[in-house]
Amino acid sequence: MTRPVFIGIDPTAGERLIDYALLDERLDVTLGQGRFDAVVDLVTGYPAAVVAIDAPQSPNTGLMADPAYRARLGLDPRRRSWANCKVCEYQMRRRGIGLYLTPRAVDDAPRWIQMGFRLFETLRAEGFQLYQPGLTAERLVLEVHPHGCYTVLLGHRPLRKDTLEGRLQRQLVLYDERLNVPDPMDAVEEITRHHLRSGTLNFSGLYTHDQLDALVAAYTAFLAAQRPERVTLVGDPAEGQITLPVAPDEFKEVYR
Length: 256
Description:
two-stranded antiparallel ribbon; six-stranded mixed beta sheet
């Protein structure tokens, strides 16, 4: 049997390169960047791969605006609260996990979301199946949300990812989950009076927030395939689900 790889992809807009992260079964890490076609070629070059994409897989289908569907969720069918959300976005936001809202029309979506749509469509055309627990296909693709991933792994909302402390916190989460990444506390040891005064701080072992997003996506793909009891899918399968690295009975009602 072919050994799988676990790949996290962080789509971008404009001219920026796409960050990706690869994990093997030992949680060894490979990081890279590339254009859309190069990343697709990389992914499809593996006969067995589980790919997690940090973007919606499909547009909003309007389920949350349907009165009958709202009633099944215990929401007032006559009101419009949450009506612009996908079901997965509603289930995340009501728990305090903020995320984008996916529009109903592709052309109304930001360019990075449109790139996510393209990635899902391209990989599906290459034979990747949408992840569901128990599915044994060698090629799987799933939707993730890194902010939500770090939230459930921490048990509370993380610090801002574009700050030094937010990057340290996220890399520490991955290090504690036994990914083979540098210990971020080594970077903290660089913050001395001398290094600050001389401007010689060395954070070479600390990853960028894009790399950290790709890494937690890859780790979620690893858990989904290797330890499915440790993931929860939120949303409606008919509209697109988000996979989170948390066991269903540990998924909190509110994250603060």
